[in-house]
Amino acid sequence: MGRRLIFHMDVNSAFLSWEASYRMNHLGAAVDLREIPAAIGGDAGLRHGIILAKSIPAKKYGIQTGESIAEAKQKYPGLYLAPPNYSLYERCSNAFVKLASEYTPEIEKYSIDEIYMDMTEMQSLYRSPEKTAREIADRIREELGFTVNIGISENKLLAKMASDFQKPDRVHTLYIEEIPDKMWPLPVSELFFVGRATAKKLRNLGIHTIGELAETDPQLLRKHLKKQGEVIWAFANGIDCSEVQSVPIPNKGYGNSTTIAFDVADRETARMVLLALAETVGARLRKDGARISVVSVGVKDFRFYYCSHQMQLFNATNITNEIYHAACCLFDEIWDGTPIRHLGIHTSKVSRDAETCRQLNLFDGTDYCKWEEMDSTIDHIRAFHGNDAVKRAVFGAVENQKIDHMSGGISRERRSVDYSRLNID
Predict the structure, then answer these.
(1) Average pLDDT, the chain
(2) Which of 19, 67, 108, 114 is catalytic?
């Protein structure tokens, strides 16, 4: 059979490409956002004002993913901004994964716009790896309307590195024997798992290229970078034994957070936000048949100062009310009254034992069975009729309608776009 064969597929400027393709193929737009200085940006009024994706022409003006819209506009005032549409992104992501699955069942969805394909068992069915990858890329461009880069190698690391070579719409190989010519001359910052802080430390050690990193004594790297030093040394030498995980690994924790559109300065409003977050966290736990034993709450104030606190629960749970009450206790312990910008609930110590028993407490008269039945009923109603079919009464009050009753993750306004309000050229 020969060596392993791994493809890494990465959508070029995913969010922007998907938006451009949708506008041109379904809304009749004449302008391709990929060919002008354009970006996908959140709503600054809702404090999601960052650049999520950019076009290649926008990149020429120094516009970067992750920077604020204000910073991007300073670099190029004429930048065209399109709002995010995550429901569209999910459909596009599912479409290219479905197409790729025609070539191999061994697919790992690494992110919404990246997948790994283990083609090892399929080598006898197709032509050369390069021609097969080119066929996949061409079909995605012609059938779905956007482009991808595909990297080919014998492990996941090198395949991912290869897909980052020249873009867009390219197929690249990076086999072990090609590392000295194709990977080692690159700046060390280009290596997977090397961020800005690590790259700076490496440069301070006189290590500027991936090749220099590969030739460095691993013990020296461990001394300065601990375990990460050994990992990036292995990566620099093309060593990666990880498998393509076609079956998703179960979550080790569940959580949700939200940036609030206004500064929260009172405890009642903060508790409303925590309740909305507990709703979504609890629903996700029950959907996966999971329970958690640790709850933590994170608070970011208007100065961007962040603090968090956690607690161990008496029993593992997936009950919304129980998660909410624990979150409120934690919040009361850490909040000092400073106006809040961002709140989050995170959980850990996950168990998936369907027969989990609850330890009784003589001093607790709560009817947990009733709570579980209520949550289950609400989940079923929302599954059939939408999340807004059932709301807690407290969210019906006029003064509380500015808080989404199921907050966190991808916010409601970013899940769809009313294109009738936009000028589509």
Answers:
(1) 90
(2) 114
